[in-house]
Design goal:
Chain lengths: 364, 71
Amino acid sequence: MNFINSKPKLLLSGLLIGGLAATLAFLGNPANMALCIGCFLRDTAGSLHLHSAEAVQYFRPEIVGLVCGSFLISVFTKEYRSTAGSSPMIRFLLGFMMAIGALVFLGCPLRMVIRMAAGDLNAYVGLIGFIIGVTIGSFFLRKGFTLGRSYETHNTSGFILPITLIVLFILSITTSLFLSSESGPGSMHAPVPVSLIAALIIGAIAQKNRMCFAGSIRDIIIMKDFSLILIIAGLFVAMLIYNILTGHFVLGFSGQPIAHSIHLWNMLGMFVTGFAAVLAGGCPMRQLILAGQGSSDSAITVIGMLLGGAMAHNFGLASAAAKAATDAEAAVAGGPSVAGKIAIILCILILFVIAATQKRKKTA
Amino acid sequence: MDYIDIDVCGLSCPEPVILTMDAIDDNPGKTIRVTGNEAHTKTNIEKTLIMKKKAYELNESDNTFTFTIEA
């Protein structure tokens, strides 16, 4: 099953992932969200009592499915390797900043594409920032940026994240230990079995096709290689068809679900996520997949994203979504808070420091 | 036979591909041996070599692979 050298297969795999994401949206996941890694890690953090924003708390089976789908297929195809030791704390920080950037924009790169496919022009503004972030990260990669080598560890190390997620998932469906939103995005979800099975399939496909939003743009910049972007194109087309067929396609800046139109901060939020993703070797979704196939470094990045999502809500860094006026409430412009803006500026400074200081030695 | 040896074991994407490309560009006419240990690294390097139309030989043993490339 060699996806990577076949462009039609890459495109087809993107269409399939997009079809599954559309199914999740159709069956109850929030509008224009379907399968957002940043949002779903944030929701999961909320369900685990890591933050107290009541509207965004739900233990998302999709996170479990993506990691375990990658884990199972990599074990089955003998690609599973338990590794660790490549600058774990820097990776934690990069994961943390990816989450902050995503929650100021209101979506990870996956949701950015899903929003683009629904006609949300704010997402296209975010894409500009994302491309600039990936480009700058790629520049530093060409100049010798490295997080160093990872080394083989005992298999147990790589098993911990998938097994922990399975245990938490069982607890989430059999006990009332975890929080679950009664209103807001956290209350919207597809049936649990569908979420889990769809994500298991997506996780397995993404492990084989190496799907990565940052990587697809990075490969174009560094290697003039357009193959990974075909997966994203497939996902976009599938979601576009779904949105047109279901009447969810609305072209414009305003009236978009869970979005804001403060352009500068949409751009800077995705700039941070794109820059951090390139330095970390993959976007939020890719980190889940790598963690599933045994990388403890990526597992640490995932924990960084989980805590970043929690902190973004605990300390008011996440943006507010724009809302139209109703009989009961006035219109809300939405956008980032002052704390969110400061956090983004700090993230940008930290990213430049990391990018400029982690250099490869000549003898690597 | 003399080789330019490049060890990409444990490096994150896309560093292995960058190191391989740089070695090819810096050593025209020489033979380069790239050793790595990640499945996706092997795939990415192979894809790049095919794209750059470089002759290569791939050997695999246990968890490692070696590309021998005519730069």
